[in-house]
Structures are given as C-alpha cells and as structure tokens.
C-alpha cells in the first residue's frame, strides 16, 4: 500500500510494498496520511501526507528531495543522544540521532543527500520548569543540519506556543498553532 | 511476587510492537491507516477496571492462549462503530459476525507473533470467540477477579476514519510471572535494556508495593476531588484513577490535540517528577468562574488564571498528600505554572525532561468530574521511575 514505515524498531511491521495504491475504498495515495508519533520518524515516497501533532518543546524536522519525490518527518524530544541514559531508546527521540536516521532512510528511499532541504517547526519554550529544552532542541537541529550540509529553507520555531504540522506532497509544511493561526512554510 | 521494572519495560515493548503488527494487519484488511496510540500495562484491581469501563458497549473477539504464554487476548471496538468497520470489509454487513471474527483472529495473531518470537515458543490460540459486551465484561476473564493483575492494553486509531480498536491481554500468572520477574526477559529483545544481576535489586519491586501505591494514588485523586469541592462548593467525583506503566512517548498522543488550560507542578523529593492538571477550555472557564466573586471579563484571562493556579495548588497538595507518609520520604511541589495550549504540547516538555533517564514510566492518570458546571479535568502524575521503584522497594522491606 505504501512505502512508509516507522522507526519503532526491527519488530515493527512495514506495510506490504507489493500492494497497489488503492485500498478497498478506492482511497488515492494523495489522501493517505502517515502519523508520526513523539520520538518517531517516517518517510513518504508516494505523496502521502506526514503529520505530527502537539509539538511543544519537541521539534519537527521535515526533509525533502523534490526531484526524487521523497520526504521525511522527524518528531524529536531531546537535543542529543549523549544525554541518554536509556540505551536502546528510539533514535527518533533525539535530534542528532533522529536526523542521522532520517537522512539514511531518505537516501535508502532514493533521495540524494545533496538535494535535501529542511523545514523546521516547534521547539517552543512551554514551561519555565523544564530548563529551555525547546530552544536547545532548535539549536541542535541547526547544528546537525549545518554539519550535514542540509539548508533550512523555512522555519517556525520558539515562542511559547504549541504547534501541529502536516508535511504535504510537494514539500510544503503546514504549521497550525494552538491559537488556530496557520501558515505554510 | 516481585516485579522487575525493566523486564516490565521489555514486556511493554513487546506489547507495543505486537500492537503495531496488529495495526498493520488491520490496515491491510480494512484499507484504513491505523496507528497505535498508546500501549500500557495497568496495575488495577477488578473494581477499578469495572469503574473505568462502565457505560461502554463493545463488540469483540477473544482468543485463549496456550503454550509460550497462557492467558487470554481480546480485540474490541466500540459497538457504535460496527457499521463503519463492516463497510470496510470484504463481504460487508452480510458477513457481520464472521467478518468481525476473522478481523479479530488476524489482528490478534499479529499481536502475538512478537511475543512468540521473543519467547522462542509458539503461542497457540484457541478458535476466536465473537462477543458483544457491556462495560468491563469486554475484558479477558479474570481481569475483574481482584488484585494482582497486569492488564496490557493498546489502543489503535484510524488516521482518516472514525474507527478505533483496543487490544487487551491478560496473561495468566505462570509463564508471565517468569517474564516480568526478569527470569526470561533479559536483552533478547532487540533494543531492550539488559537486566544485569547487579541491577536487578534496584529495579525489582513487590507487586504488593505497586498495588499499595495504586491505592495511594487513588486516594490522592479522591483528595484532589474533595479539594475542588471545598473550593467551589460543587459536588466533585473521581471518574477514573489508574496506575499504568507506559512508554513515555505515548503520553502526549494520549492527551491529544484539543486545547487545555490548567497548571503544571514539579514534584521535589523522592520520588521527584511532574504533575499536570488539565481542563478542557470550557471546563477551565466554568470552574474558574465558579470560584470568582463576579463573572470575569475574559473566560481564561488573568483572574481565571489566578483561580486555576490556586485550585491547582490545593489539588496537588491533596494528590500527593500521604505519599511521603506511606513511602517514608519527603515530597514537596513547586508553585503552579499556568498552561493554556494544545494538550499534548503542554505535556511533552515534562515527558522530554523525564525521558533523559527513562523510556517507560509509571503514570497515574485520573479524571475528575465536577457536577453543576459540567467541568472535567485530567490529572497526570509522572514520577521518576527509579526513585519511585526505590521508594516502593523500601516500602516492601518494612
């Protein structure tokens, strides 16, 4: 049905890639959605909409190779995997490991690393209680993408507002804030 | 029975992956994309479960399990959704029972595959049994029998249609006991943490201590409700109070994308952690108005914020009241921080903070209902897992 898969580990089930694009309802690939959970990532190769919701201090990194028609979305919680004292955690939990994994998966799906461009959303400073994890996530995204040579073409980050994003076919990242304000990056 | 918390984490991971397999099978069958919303293991008494499931009507399929794992597994969905499901299945409405039974059989087969692989032993399923059930009768046999159960629950939701499923598994104590006491559960699972002998003492707690803590949490929820009643003069009751062991990353998804207003607290002491009290916007405005001498200019403006902070303070004190006494530690809480945003965005920084040390954790969630103003709030307490485990371990020694 789709070439999507989630990062939840080797036990997770990838959808059967030999199926055609339409389910019993005649649903086209353009209407298909892949939901990306917290600390998770996914790749879309057939025009599916990638969505992730409730970004507070978490950060969403959307990467696209327009020529190859391959897109990927990461919803990371924490800046760096060296903060981890939880071996075996999902790679998508961290900005650094998550971006590495996402790039690998995009390349495996046919993207060229030199053609990737990034859109970034989230990283809000929601609470005083949690030592600015949002801004630190955003800084880490900028650092990692710069190292990987991937330009950030648009971003909607920071402030104190929660966001929901949809990464649609064509590469636009639709960001909706908690107050209902919506913009496409 | 002593429970190894890390082994319980490994079991939760199996349940999570099993649920993903089941979601894949259901997606293939129905053409609707299904995603796993949440997987967890409840530490719950039969009475708690009966309360939590009151008023629900479910249709489902159950299978008995023998071999690698003994017990029962159930796939269930809301009876109101039966037409939506049947319209997606080959054969449609004319095939109601047999179609649903087949769906259940395939989904539960997927769910159990991961467990069987992990255990290296086949799990035999008895032929699937179709049922329609009221309330907690949907749960596997034995779930309501009393204390001492871990009920694994996964919720699967369709991304585009109004369709969701629950999978419940209640393992019998025999082979499952070996799993969660850590005997059979070291790092054979890819990605799971090793359960070294040196660590086992620090991560094992007695089931009785967990059960005691679940009761304590329930009493805390009742205290918090009493404190709302005291401040508003309105009758307030606890709908649900549960102690669950869940992947932390699932919690924001579970809270959902509706806007909420409320307060967040940091807990300081042993265990440390966080507590969030979230009201849907209308409920927040209604409960704040009931505490104010006159109608505020803005429903959720500064006056309402102050009222909700004050309410949060007394609820939190009530909620953790008794923890320190029973656990023999000292626990305090920070001043309230007012939040008003998408629910999951509000809770994700707390989860991120705890996730630096743990992937799984105990969460106490309670739903509290205030009559008269039709207000409802959800309380989430997220204690540091290691500190809670240590405190519970000390509890079992005394």
Task: Lay out the secondary structure.
The complex is a heterodimer of chains A (185) and B (398).
Chain A: E1 33-35, E2 40-44, E3 49-55, E4 59-65, E5 70-76, H1 95-108, E6 117-122, H2 133-148, E7 152-157, E8 163-167, E9 173-177, E10 182-184
Parallel strand pairs in A: 1-3, 6-7
Antiparallel strand pairs in A: 2-5, 3-8, 4-5, 4-6, 8-9, 9-10
Chain B: E1 2-4, H1 5-30, E2 34-43, H2 46-53, E3 57-67, E4 71-78, H3 82-88, H4 96-119, E5 123-125, E6 129-134, E7 150-158, E8 164-171, H5 173-180, H6 197-203, E9 204-206, H7 207-232, E10 236-247, H8 250-255, E11 259-269, E12 273-280, H9 281-291, H10 302-320, H11 323-327, E13 331-333, E14 337-342, H12 343-355, E15 360-370, E16 375-383, H13 385-397
Antiparallel strand pairs in B: 1-9, 2-7, 2-10, 3-4, 3-5, 3-6, 4-8, 7-8, 10-15, 11-12, 11-13, 11-14, 12-16, 15-16
Tell me what the structure shows.
Chain A is built from two helices and ten strands. Chain A is α+β, with helices and mostly antiparallel strands. In chain A, the strands form two sheets. A five-stranded mixed β-sheet of chain A has the order 1-3-8-9-10, with no helix packed on it. Residues 1-30 of chain A have low confidence and may be disordered. Chain B has 13 helices and 16 strands. In chain B, helix 1 (5-30) packs antiparallel against helix 4 (96-119), helix 7 crosses helix 13 (385-397) and helix 9 packs across helix 10. With 398 residues, chain B is α+β, with helices and mostly antiparallel strands. In chain B, a hairpin with a 3-residue loop joins strand 3 (57-67) and strand 4 (71-78). In chain B, the strands form two sheets. In chain B, strands 2, 3, 4, 5, 6, 7, 8, 10, 11, 12, 13, 14, 15 and 16 form a 14-stranded antiparallel β-sheet that branches. In chain B, strands 1-9 form a two-stranded antiparallel sheet. Chain B is globular and about 60 Å long. The interface between A and B is large, with 58 and 61 residues.
